[in-house]
Design brief:
single chain; elongated; two-stranded antiparallel ribbon; 60% helix; mainly alpha; disordered C terminus; 10 helices; two-stranded antiparallel sheet
């Protein structure tokens, strides 16, 4: 009996020892796994640690592939959009010359004929000139040498001086073929720019936005061309819509009549009543004429509404002396200073009327004719690197902040 009890006790002690060893080994494995996890986490943080990292940086990093796809696709879309603008505008001009102009010469009085010929051709010249200049004119870029400018920040994307009102375009990266990106004989040019086959990414002076319809950035040197193109294109579309309203109504009624007669002709053919006289049919030339008039009016009216809204938006920005980017920046700055009991004043605004004079380059009264109502390739005020008082301004204005 005692031997059995001893054997049972020995077996129980052995089992308890095995369980104790297994528990220690399991705890040891858990501790080793925890140590490996903490070590790996520490290594990862040591490799990726940045004191400037925050939630916005993490989100930007996660969306970087999306940004890359949008940027590269938008570049190619720019070429398609430019071809679309040229094609649609050319189609409207062709319809006016082929279909409408002969009708105007036959039915209108000499006074109205002179008005349509004069205004229509003037508007067309202004549209073509400003669109060509907006596409081919570089918006302007700051010099790459870091010792050329003092007291400016550094762009984190192109690691170059970033003067006031300058921003980086992520869509085109400001890469251009050829030599200097600035206008001829401009002081911001550097000798190293000449003859470069492919320039590095650069910021855009007084950048407003990247316009896919121009396949170009809108900046300091082509902002006036862009706005003038929008304005004269809107005026041309409104002119075509108003002038062609009666023709549109007649053409639309003729098309509806064509559809009705075509339906009757099919019914006659289905009933096989050959002894009946078939309804008269319209010729191909008549069909093409009526459909072209409807196409012209619908396209011009749609463009007038859409582009007119965009033109009014940019006109309001010009009146305030802002760009599209600066509007968002100034709004946040205005809200921030308002909480502190201060009033924000735009340092680049000279008053509503003077802002327009500076934007259009009007230094004297005759410039309203030679620089606004007629095609003019004159340069804007300033270099885009510093914003001194324009020569057309005689009085000083309030500083940035007024407490």
């Amino acid at each position: 009996m005692r031997s059995r009890q001893r054997m049972f006790a020995a077996v129980m002690r052995l089992l308890l020892k095995c369980l104790r060893l297994g528990r220690r080994r399991r705890f040891k494995l858990v501790r080793q796994a925890e140590q490996l996890w903490h070590y790996g986490h520490l290594c990862l943080r040591s490799l990726l640690y940045n004191s400037f990292t925050n939630g916005d940086v993490v989100l930007d990093s996660l969306f970087e592939p999306v940004y890359w796809l949008v940027d590269h696709v938008t570049r190619w879309f720019g070429v398609v959009f430019v071809a679309l603008v040229i094609g649609l505008t050319s189609s409207i001009v062709a319809i006016v010359y082929i279909c409408l102009l002969p009708l105007i010469l036959q039915t209108y009085t000499p006074a109205w004929i002179c008005w349509h010929l004069a205004y229509g051709h003037w508007n067309l010249i202004m549209i073509v000139f400003h669109y060509y200049m907006a596409i081919t004119t570089s918006p302007g870029h700051p010099p790459q040498a870091k010792n050329d400018l003092t007291g400016v920040s550094i762009c984190r994307k192109c690691i170059a001086p970033k003067p006031a009102r300058t921003h980086h375009c992520s869509i085109c990266n400001s890469r251009e073929l050829g030599g200097c990106l600035c206008p001829p004989k401009h002081s911001a040019c550097t000798g190293s720019d000449t003859g470069a086959a492919l320039l590095p990414p650069r910021c855009v002076l007084k950048m407003d936005h990247h316009c896919p319809w121009l396949n170009n950035c809108v900046g300091h040197y082509n902002h006036r061309y862009f706005f003038s193109f929008c304005l004269f294109m809107t005026m041309g579309c409104i002119y075509c819509s108003i002038s062609g309203w009666e023709m549109f109504r007649d053409a639309y009624a003729a098309i509806e009549r064509m559809k009705l007669l075509e339906k009757e002709r099919l019914q006659v053919a289905a009933n096989q009543t050959y002894y009946q006289t078939p309804p008269p049919t319209f010729s191909f030339r008549q069909r093409a004429f009526h459909k072209s008039v409807v196409y012209l009016w619908v396209l011009c009216s749609s463009v007038a509404l859409a582009l007119g809204a965009l033109t009014l938006w940019h006109a309001a920005l010009i009146t305030r002396g802002e760009t599209s980017i600066e509007r968002h920046i100034n709004r946040k700055e205005r809200q921030r200073l308002q909480k502190k009991g201060k009033v924000f004043r735009n340092p680049y605004s000279y008053g509503s009327w003077d802002n327009w004079k500076v934007f259009l380059g009007v230094d004297m009264p005759r410039h309203w004719l030679t620089r606004v109502l007629l095609p003019s390739p004159h340069l804007p005020h300033g270099t885009g690197l510093s914003w001194d008082l324009p020569p057309c301004m005689t009085e000083q204005h309030t500083p940035l902040l007024a407490i």
